[in-house]
C-alpha cells in the first residue's frame, strides 16, 4: 500500500546537538517529497522539497534533507538544534500520478536546554 | 510571496449551527485549493480538493453534504461545516496551489473550531 512513514513519534535532543528525523515512503515511483514544520496552533511552513536532481536538498532555518532512492527515505537533518526548533515536523509526499499530498504522522521535537 | 490566510482563526459555536471558514490566497491566483483536518496530536488528513468554478472532490469518508466547499474565485475558497456537532471540533487547514502543477502547496494558518 502507498504510504509515508515517520517512525519516530517524539524525539528529544539537547540544544546544540545534531538532529535527524526519519521519513520513509512506499510508492511505485518516486514521489515529490516535502518537509514541513508546524508550531503549536499554527499552520505549516515549508522547510524544503525534493522533485529531482541533487539528492541533498538545502532548506530554510539551516535544515537539509537527503533523498536516498535505495532506502526510499528522505531524512531531515540539522547540525545544531536551537530551542526555537521545538515543533512538530511532517514529512509529506505528492505521488507523481496525482496531486494529493499525503502526510506522515509527524514527529514532535523537544529541545532540552 | 505565496501567502494564504484563513478566517476566522478560531471559532466556538453551539451544536446544530453552521460555521463558515474562509481561505484566501493573498498574492497569487490559486487554481486549486485543498482542505485538511487535523485532530489533536495527529497528522493532517485531506478532506477535499477544489478547483475554481467546479465542484469539490471529496476524499472517501468525508460527507460532502456536511462539509460544503465553494471555490467561487481564484483567490477564495470556503468550507462550511453544516449542523456542527462536538465531534466536528478540530483544526481545519487550507492550502492553495497555482499553475498547472499542484505539487507545491502553500498553507494557511488554520482555523480552530470548537463545537459546544
Concise structural overview:
The complex is a heterodimer of chains A (113) and B (116). In chain A, 0% of the residues lie in helices and 51% in strands.
Molecular structure report:
The complex is a heterodimer of chains A (113) and B (116). With 113 residues, chain A is mainly beta. Chain A has strands spanning 3-5, 10-14, 19-21, 24-26, 32-38, 44-50, 56-58, 64-68, 73-78, 87-94, 102-103, 107-112. Chain A is 0% helix and 51% strand. Chain A is globular. Chain B contains no helices and eleven strands. The mean pLDDT of chain B is 90.
Topology:
The complex is a heterodimer of chains A (113) and B (116).
Chain A: E1 3-5, E2 10-14, E3 19-21, E4 24-26, E5 32-38, E6 44-50, E7 56-58, E8 64-68, E9 73-78, E10 87-94, E11 102-103, E12 107-112
Parallel strand pairs in A: 2-12
Antiparallel strand pairs in A: 1-4, 3-9, 5-6, 5-10, 7-8, 8-9, 10-11, 10-12
Chain B: E1 4-7, E2 10-13, E3 19-25, E4 32-38, E5 44-51, E6 57-58, E7 67-73, E8 76-81, E9 90-97, E10 106-107, E11 111-115
Parallel strand pairs in B: 2-11
Antiparallel strand pairs in B: 1-3, 3-8, 4-5, 4-9, 5-6, 7-8, 9-10, 9-11
Features:
heterodimer, A: mainly beta, 6-stranded mixed beta sheet, 4-stranded antiparallel beta sheet, 12 strands, B: 116 residues, mainly beta, 7-stranded mixed beta sheet, 0% helix, 52% strand
